[in-house]
Amino acid sequence: MNLKEFAKEIRVTTLKQLAVPGFGHVGGAMSIVETLAVLFGETMRIDPSNPQWSERDKLILSKGHAGPALYSTLALKGYFPMEMLTELNKFGGRLPSHVDRSKTPGVDMTAGSLGQGLSVACGVALGDRMSGRACHTYCIVGDGELDEGQNWEAMMFAAHYKLSNLTLLVDNNKVQLDGYTDDVMKLGDLAAKLTAFGWKTLTADGHDVDAIRAALAERSAECPSAIILDTIKGKGANFAEAAVPNNHHMTFTAEQIEAAIQEVA
Ligand SMILES: Cc1ncc(C[n+]2csc(CCOP(=O)(O)OP(=O)(O)O)c2C)c(N)n1
What we know:
By secondary structure, the chain is of the alpha/beta class. Helices cover 39% and strands 14% of the residues. It contains 11 helices and 9 strands. The chain starts with a helix and ends with a helix. The protein binds thiamine diphosphate (TPP). The site of thiamine diphosphate has 20 residues, from helix 2 and strand 5.
């Protein structure tokens, strides 16, 4: 699969999806597009026709508000029909604003209250190992989300249990809900901190599929690995990129979406 093309398709599909309600978490959805393209396009062992396959790799989208990007990816991979994407944020629909594993085929964790995903990912990875399953668990967190202390407990846990079947992907877009992460709570040298916690730590341009792929190839077989992805909040949606740092949740017009699609395509 051409991962650059797949990323473009995810981005355009996400913009079209968000156009239906006319509002949503465009910033944090756009910053993880290339990550999802690499994971679902080539890295993860999955079977879209069998989302509950016990031998599958799992994705824990801890920053659950980025659902629209994941929904586009899942639809494009055939987990559910493309027409279902019009259900985003609809009352009683199958694509809630924040991801819900009981509603959407292919979603592995219900999220929305930030900071919990890495703990769940640890449990899933340890459970797979104890059950003798050669599965890998991927967990995407936001940089702002790392303000939650539970993440750091999970980091210690993963290192202690040498969870080499766990990969943490940090969407380091430098912005959170109400401002720059550096202004709200500085993360400092995140790579050094993760390394000190016992992780193999890598960095990559989060909008370069080849760089993400190269970082994945460098992961450790002995301990958990983390990839800190340098990203831009709202990447590819020009109206959202222009609004940084106020692009966490936005309203937008059909014309803005159309112009952004033209720019991406
Ligand atoms: C426990 C908890 N506290 C606060 C919120 C409200 N909230 C939703 S998104 C967000 C910002 C998250 O920032 P980041 O993880 O950097 O996400 P991104 O910028 O990638 O969208 C906050 C504070 C929440 N969902 N859960």
